[in-house]
């Protein structure tokens, strides 16, 4: 069972790298799927949240294409009405403009602006990032007693961003596993923390609206300062029940890369009522 799962995970990495090669010449704006990119089993978001994420993604994509510089390279990842911005833009003003554009989109509950100032990454760099993402997913998949499907993985310049609706223990273990994958230069935690009881309830298909819309949850603290925010302002991903047949096994390891928390969540524009 373990060998089969490991083979599938590594095949995913190869397929992703091949796909990147086919995409050479595409626009520099990249919009991450609202529900894609994670190893999907059960979605912990409410149906309303999933619908809103797709709408936010489409609106962000169309607005960025028309309003942002052609030499900007931006990745947009949307989960549970929360938008993570990564990539490169020419100036600090462009970084602020991108955040302002997202803030003007209805029902965005939070923005994490991790854009950097500089030239766009090369095609080879983006291909490497895609491969690292696949390796991190494979590492999480083979980690014993850890539901890899609880994590959304985004890689930019070798820096891995982990989003998810996880317990503190799951988040720490997932970040540690990702930090040991060869090529990862840093791991950034963009988690929404929930209690073990809530994690079990949601994994079994419990009240998704409570987690996605109103139940309080502890967000990842920003560099040592604990913070508590509403659950609707935090990232959320998919869930799965860990397979006891999967053993802890390093696929491609290095000494642990640094792990940090994401930039503070900035306010969005939650104009619409949560569904």
UniProtKB/TrEMBL annotation:
Residues 52-119, 128-195 form the BON domain. SMART domains: BON (SM00749). The keyword Signal applies. It comes from the Bacteria. Residues 263-275 have a biased composition (Polar residues). Residues 1-21 form the signal peptide. Keywords: Signal. Gene3D superfamilies: 3.30.1340.30. InterPro entries: BON_dom, Lipoprotein_DolP, Transpt-assoc_nodulatn_dom_bac. Residues 210-235 have a biased composition (Low complexity). This is BON domain-containing protein. It comes from Pararobbsia alpina.
């Amino acid at each position: 069972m373990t060998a089969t799962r490991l083979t599938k995970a590594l095949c995913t990495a190869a397929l992703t790298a091949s796909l990147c090669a086919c995409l050479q010449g595409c626009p520099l704006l990249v919009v991450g799927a609202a529900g894609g990119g994670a190893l999907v089993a059960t979605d912990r978001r409410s149906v309303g949240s999933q619908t809103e994420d797709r709408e936010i993604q489409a609106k962000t994509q169309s607005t960025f294409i028309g309003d942002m510089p052609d030499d900007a390279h931006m990745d947009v990842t949307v989960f549970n009405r929360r938008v993570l911005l990564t990539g490169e833009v020419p100036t600090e003003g462009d970084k602020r403009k991108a955040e302002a554009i997202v803030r003007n989109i209805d029902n965005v509950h939070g923005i994490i602006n991790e854009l950097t100032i500089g030239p766009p990454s090369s095609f080879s760099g983006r291909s490497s990032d895609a491969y690292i993402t696949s390796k991190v997913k494979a590492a999480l998949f083979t980690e014993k007693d850890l539901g890899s499907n609880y994590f959304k993985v985004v890689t930019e310049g070798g820096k891995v961003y982990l989003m998810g609706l996880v317990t503190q223990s799951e988040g720490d273990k997932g970040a540690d596993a990702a930090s040991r994958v060869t090529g990862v230069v840093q791991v950034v935690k963009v988690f929404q923390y929930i209690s073990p009881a809530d994690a079990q309830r949601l994994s079994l298909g419990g009240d998704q609206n409570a987690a996605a819309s109103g139940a309080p949850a502890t967000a990842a603290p920003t560099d040592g300062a604990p913070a508590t925010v509403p659950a609707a302002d935090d990232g959320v991903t998919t869930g799965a029940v860990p397979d006891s047949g999967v053993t802890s096994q390093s696929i491609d390891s290095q000494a642990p890369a640094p792990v940090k928390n994401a930039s503070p969540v900035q306010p969005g524009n939650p104009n619409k009522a949560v569904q």
